[in-house]
Amino acid sequence: MDIKDIVNSIEPADKGVFEKAKERTSNLIMPPRAVGMLNDISERLCAIHRSLKPETDKRCVFVMASDHGVVEEGVSAFPQVVTCEMIRAFVGGIATINVLARQNNARVVVCDVGTKCSFENQQLSGENEFISKKVNSGSQNFTKTAAMSRDEATLSILRGFELARDKIEQYGLNLIATGDMGIGNTTPSAAVASVILDKDPSEIAGRGTGLDDESYNRKIDVIRRGIQLNKPNRNDAIDVLAKVGGFEIGAIAGVILAAAFKRIPVVIDGFISTAGALIAYNLNPTVADYMFAGHLSEENGHKLMLEYLGLNPILRLNMRLGEGTGAVLAMHIVDAAARVIKEVATFQEAGVSESEK
Q: How confident is the model over 188-203, as pLDDT tens digits?
């Protein structure tokens, strides 16, 4: 399938089932909408799954990894080699995302879509799946040229889509999450968001891995220069991705498209994942029906990005780690919402007197 076929095949969540879910919610043995966002989430889950008994027990987080040429401009507090080292940690099961995924009975699938790492001549083994779908060995420095070609941008989306689609089918997944790894990737993410939201980078970019004032101001200038040089078309998501994005951002967009294509919910993580969500949304806004925002990141522009997508963050924990950590934590809440609408009795079922209207 090509991207046009994928995008055109995505259908909205079922409005009829959504209305039936709202009707059931109104009859649960509790005051009206007494569990707040849990009611909202549960109704959306029903519409996504086309069922009043949505299942969320088969879970997976897709951690998409890539490197970025713009790191040579001094926009990260960590060296680029950390990308490769963290991939080993993910596969070995010792990173934060692994701990939180184990707690939540979620699979971890790590995918190299564009790192400078070379694992071909070494054994990369551990408790989690590692898959190489490398488009290229890192993006280009977008202050000097486009981050990637349009064909590469398209391919990064397709690689993410194919991976997630295949794993959804292989494991019968009914709830997935997006994650990322890539030193320097808050810079292209901020660039993507700045273009699509038509905002100055100073309103979007944050301190990433903990930049000091001088490095932070340099990061904003780098993004401005990259946008000015490449002039991405904000109405063409693939052009934006190609000009100032990253391979993992495109792959995350593909994972989101796969969730919508397969009619299952996807919990997006923080700043980088939401940049991927912006790409997917601008390819087909219907994907928003299938997305849940796991949390509100500490990065400056994340709130604006979520508002653009019409998403309300489930958690607000002052997190900025990435990896999919916020999304996997939010899966607990999504699962609770599914259980509320499935397992809480209605007034009629329980024989409880309703309040007087």
A: 999 999 999 999 999 9
